[in-house]
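Quick bug: FMN dependent NADH:quinone oxidoreductase output formatted oddly.
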Amino acid sequence: MSKVLVVESSVRQEGSVSRQLTAEFVARWQKAHPQDQVTVRDLARDGVPHLDADLLGGWMKPAAEQSAAEQAALVRSNQLTDELLAADVLVLAAPMYNFAIPSTLKSWLDHVLRAGVTFQYTAQGPQGLLQDKRAFILTARGGVYAGGPLDQQEPYLRQALGFIGITDVTFIHAEGLNMGGDAAEQGLAKARKQLEAVA
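Here's what came back:
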């Protein structure tokens, strides 16, 4: 049995294409892997604060020197990191907001990219500690950006996940969703075809 961690980051609960894709992915995955356990972390419903001094204090100070706020920040970061560590498969739903990922997803990454936990520093440089995991990234985009200079999502997420050792990463882009005509339908159909093949 594998554990699947799904991270939703769309601010919309209704009408969200990334959430539609996630639901379809999970349904297909569970059909193919009925014994797998799926955990959903919804960053819109249960927000993760931005990186701040309390979190840094929780990470860096001895327990006896931490304030109540620092202790609470550390507990939250540990919970998020433990979810990731326990997962065999990571599914990130990432709509494109202003050419990048939602700030909520960036905050989640800031909590789980942790020295000594998900990566370590060595004499040869940083080394990721999560090499045994797979990731699927489901994006929703108003225009067409894949492979172009304005696509800041895929390069950033590949780098961030690769930094912690997750290099088996598959992207499924639903593009052209706001371009009118048949573009949205075609973009969604292409994404669903890819999703069916990998899930």
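Actually, after a second look the formatting is fine. The domain at 3-198 is CATH 3.40.50.360 (Rossmann fold). Closing.
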